[in-house]
């Protein structure tokens, strides 16, 4: 009994120290997961704590459960809109990218560390998985907002490459211990694992959602149900021969994109549980490491880390994203932020459990690679995003949302806003009846509604609204895009109707015209240029101006911006390979500077004939130009 109490005391103390230390990391923006790893090292047998923990089997069991929780939350928090924006590039990175990274790092491990090819490829497989939690924590701490396509690519890749890396690692361990199976058998095993994992995940997600919505449990019991379902789906899929990691991710993805009772409370619960899982995994893996063994292999391991960061990851990213028209800067950023984390360490335990001769050496190498990745890449994410000019203004939507469980179909949400200084509400604009606040808090005190008028910048307002009206209310309280001079650089100087034709705009403003595009509307022109998947902020050059996707509703362009002088902060983003037709279009689109200046002086008078009054944009995530015509 006393021994059990000591174990609980030690474990809880380590968690408390980790949480308290994370406060400092949040203040300074340090790689938080690296701090958790350091606490485990300090508490281990080579540190000041002298805690001896050498049970790789228990570590793998606890780590697998923690990883299942993390993957469920990763899927639960991913919107299908992200897949619409970045599914193919992200999945290519999660499959082909894992294979390329495994091969390149395996070659480096073979020649630098003298490992056999099978063991060297295991080092590559362990280091092929990226850590989504580490990436987005560092972006959040640094106040960095990326355009959705880049963020979605990183998010989906990090969530979906774990199952691929795990399957590759298991196959390599089986090949090293029992011999290499036939290619047909390997392909069959992969197809079975992923198809069964996907089917079981979607079925389990549907069962979970149906159970919660029909059972009508108390709110406090729903998180318990989702957690037990996630672990059950993970385990039963593994027993049946499928990929449990893929299944639990797919279950979370399904549950997070359908109507689910108490979804917001569940998101908060799983977000906290994910952080607990991350802390447990890193502290435990730090305890498992033996730093005195690093002395004889530190230099080769650093060489492997260098190859991963400088060669393998960039090569995989550039190869995989080549067909998807990412700009050079976007591709460079994605290549740089492929952080390695707890999954890499967990995969490195598989060779140890498989009884390989150099299993501990593989784990130690992966440990050093993770530390270097968190130190080098983790500490420079903000700097790299700013240097590549990929940061966009933050959202100005609601600061908090609370889903209300009301009888029948009366779906309402309680939303809270901090009134923006340049919002229509702060300027005294009369609010529609459906947008009037129910509560106003000013300087920490509740202000009666009849005394709160006019609303002031910094007021906290709370109101009840159906979800479909949130975009409209965002604009009333969250700020007006055209009133912010900085934002005009991103979204243009004028607002045009998306139904105006290219011929009308070209004739009215004296712009160069391609006859093949003459009868296209501005909306059709933008969609054709970007393959039907436009994003806010996408740009097309037309002579000396740029047409910009300024606002969208349900994937339909509702307003087009016209930039008179393309913003310097959004300097030209060139595709990896410029198409010949683009070069010809640029030569044919020569613009007379003197005529342009005269036209600029008359643009306000002419705008009313080409444009229509349009609501200002809801969001401002995307500002980068992907191409020119």
TrEMBL record:
Q: Tell me the compartments it is located in.
A: Cell membrane
Q: Name one GO cellular component term.
A: plasma membrane
Membrane spanning segments where? Answer: 6-26, 33-53, 59-76, 88-109, 121-143, 164-186, 192-212, 219-236, 272-291, 297-321, 333-353, 359-376
Q: List the Gene Ontology MF annotations in alphabetical order.
A: antiporter activity; flavin adenine dinucleotide binding
Q: Pinpoint the Transporter-associated domain residues.
A: 487-566
Where is this chain compositionally biased, Basic and acidic residues type?
616-629
Which domain of life does the UniProt lineage start with? Answer: Bacteria
Q: Name one GO biological process term.
A: proton transmembrane transport
UniProt keywords (A-Z) are: Antiport, Cell membrane, Ion transport, Membrane, Transmembrane, Transmembrane helix, Transport
Which Pfam family is one of those matched by this entry? Answer: Na_H_Exchanger
Show the segment(s) annotated as Disordered: 607-629
Membrane topology label:
Multi-pass membrane protein
Which InterPro entries does the UniProt record give? Cation/H_exchanger_TM, FAD-bd_PCMH-like_sf, Na+/solute_symporter_sf, Transptr-assoc_dom
State what protein this is by name.
Answer: Potassium/proton antiporter
The scientific name of the source species is: Azospirillum palustre
């Amino acid at each position: 009994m006393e021994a059990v109490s000591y174990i609980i005391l030690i474990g809880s103390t380590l968690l408390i120290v980790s949480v308290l230390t994370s406060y400092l990391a949040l203040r300074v923006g340090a790689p938080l997961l690296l701090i958790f790893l350091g606490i485990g090292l300090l508490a281990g047998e080579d540190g000041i704590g002298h805690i001896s923990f050498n049970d790789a089997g228990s570590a793998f069991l606890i780590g697998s459960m923690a990883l299942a929780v993390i993957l469920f939350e990763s899927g639960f928090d991913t919107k299908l809109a992200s897949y619409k924006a970045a599914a193919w590039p992200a999945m290519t990175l999660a499959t082909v990218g894992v294979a390329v990274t495994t091969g390149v790092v395996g070659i480096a491990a073979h020649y630098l560390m003298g490992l056999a090819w099978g063991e060297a490829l295991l080092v590559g497989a362990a280091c092929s998985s990226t850590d989504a939690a580490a990436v987005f924590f560092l972006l959040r701490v640094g106040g960095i907002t990326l355009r959705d396509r880049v963020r979605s690519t990183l998010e989906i890749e990090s969530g979906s490459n774990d199952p691929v890396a795990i399957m590759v690692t298991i196959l390599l361990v089986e090949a090293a211990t029992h011999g290499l199976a036939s290619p047909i058998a390997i392909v069959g095993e992969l197809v079975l694992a992923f198809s069964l994992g996907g089917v079981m995940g979607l079925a389990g997600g549907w069962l979970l959602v149906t159970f919660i919505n029909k059972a009508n449990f108390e709110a406090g019991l729903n998180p318990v149900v989702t957690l037990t379902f996630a672990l059950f789906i993970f385990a039963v899929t593994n027993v049946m021969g499928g990929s449990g990691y893929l299944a639990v991710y797919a279950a979370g993805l399904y549950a997070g994109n359908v109507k689910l009772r108490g979804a917001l409370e569940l998101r908060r619960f799983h977000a906290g549980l994910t952080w607990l899982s991350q802390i447990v995994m890193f502290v435990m893996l730090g305890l498992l490491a033996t730093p005195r063994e690093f002395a004889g292999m530190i230099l080769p391991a650093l060489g492997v880390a260098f190859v991963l960061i400088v060669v393998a990851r960039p090569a995989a990213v550039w190869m995989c994203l080549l067909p998807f028209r990412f700009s050079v800067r976007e591709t460079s950023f994605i290549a740089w932020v492929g952080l390695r984390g707890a999954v890499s360490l967990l995969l490195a335990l598989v060779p140890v459990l498989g009884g390989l001769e150099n299993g501990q050496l593989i784990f130690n190498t992966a440990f050093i690679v993770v530390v270097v990745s968190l130190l080098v890449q983790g500490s420079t994410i903000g700097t790299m995003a700013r240097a590549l000019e990929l940061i966009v203004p933050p959202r100005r939507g609601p600061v908090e949302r609370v889903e209300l469980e009301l009888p029948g179909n009366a779906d309402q949400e309680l939303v809270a806003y901090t009134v923006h200084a340049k919002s229509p509400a702060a300027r005294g604009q009369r609010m529609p009846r459906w947008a009037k606040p129910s509560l106003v808090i000013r300087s920490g005190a509740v202000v009666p509604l009849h005394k709160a008028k006019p609303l002031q910048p910094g007021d906290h307002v709370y109101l009840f609204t159906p979800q479909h009206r949130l975009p409209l209310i965002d604009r009333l309280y969250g700020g007006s895009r055209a009133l912010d001079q900085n934002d005009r650089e991103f979204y243009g100087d004028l607002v045009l109707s998306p139904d105006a034709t290219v011929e009308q705009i070209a004739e009215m403003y004296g712009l160069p015209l391609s006859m093949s595009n003459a009868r296209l509307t501005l909306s059709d022109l933008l969609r054709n240029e970007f393959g039907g998947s436009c994003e806010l902020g996408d740009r097309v050059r037309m002579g000396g101006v740029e047409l910009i996707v300024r606002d969208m509703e349900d994937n339909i362009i509702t307003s087009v911006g016209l930039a008179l002088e393309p913003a310097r902060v959004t300097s030209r983003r060139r595709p990896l390979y410029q198409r010949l037709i683009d070069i010809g279009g640029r030569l044919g689109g020569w613009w007379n500077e003197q005529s342009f200046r005269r036209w600029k002086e008359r643009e306000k008078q002419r705008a009313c004939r080409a444009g229509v009054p349009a609501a200002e944009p809801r969001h401002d995530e995307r500002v980068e130009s992907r191409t020119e015509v």
